[in-house]
Amino acid sequence: MDLNAVAEWMARHVDGFAGPLRATKFEIGQSNPTYRLDSPSGSYVLRRKPSGQLLKSAHAVDREFRVQKALAGTDVPVPRMLALCEDEAVIGAMFYVMEHVAGRNIADPSMPDETPDSRAAIIDEMNRVLAAIHDVDLVATGLSDFGPPGHYYERQLVRWTKQYKASETEEIAEIEGLIDWLGAQMPPDDGNRTLVHGDFRIDNLLFAADGPACRAVLDWELSTLGHPFADLAGVIMQWQLPPGMQGRGLAGIDRKAAGLPDDAAFVARYCARRGLTVPGNFGYYLAFAFFRMAAILQGVKKRALDGNASNPEKALQLGAFVPHFASLGLKSRDWHG
């Protein structure tokens, strides 16, 4: 990345900026490469589209910028957006610059370094923030046109099936079975339409250094208007995976002893916060979450094979999980908490 070009552009578009720049690439951000920028005027974060040929509608950093800017001043904590560069001639790709938020990133939801009480507080804060995202006033924030109208799950099934097929490298029977079942069991549109983050999990949040308060929700690339249970199911999906840095899940952990809620308790607490009834068909939403993540990971794998991944080795490791996610999706159909 041409740091001189970035510094020249920031001098024109970011108030108070003074160069020169030093850049450090974050290991997180498989989809959109992310960098910490340090300069005499302070620290910033730059997110850019990756290089190479990209799937249509993917890597929408302009949408990330828009939604986070709109959320400033709401109950959803986000970094302050500073400037968006749509001119690809500057560094070869669209990018945006935001403030650097100091905080701790928790990569492992089992939180081995925390106490049972602090784990409980952090997970409840995660629950609160998720409810806050879904309670955002779309008209007041100017986000009422942030996603197309109509049945969210019908639209999403078409989108992610198409994305998966565009990235397919081999036929996986479990994926085909899951796609067929999701189409056949599609729930009716209940009119529940909110802002959705699209990738809400604990490692996309920044927490205060000295407590459970969430300082920022990150990685809004997949955000849109849709059904809030998509985000809720995404959290529960993550927890079905193995614990540790590879799976980043809670499978097999004694949650009660650890101070962590079980799946049903987390879902019930979220629904209580928003005045909703716990859905009887939550297994559908969970199965869909597994399918969508499988499609995302297949795209990551394809970019690695094509030489366009931000971190090729990590991308291939993630891509190897595609069949596993499909199998878990099939098993989730009868979820009852």
TrEMBL record:
One family from Pfam that matches here is APH
Domain (Aminoglycoside phosphotransferase) spans 24-244
**Species:** Thalassococcus arenae
Entries under InterPro entries matching the protein: ACAD10-like, ACAD10_11_N, Aminoglycoside_PTrfase
> What is the name of this protein?
Phosphotransferase family protein
Source organism phylogeny = Bacteria, Pseudomonadati, Pseudomonadota, Alphaproteobacteria, Rhodobacterales
User: Which superkingdom?
Assistant: Bacteria
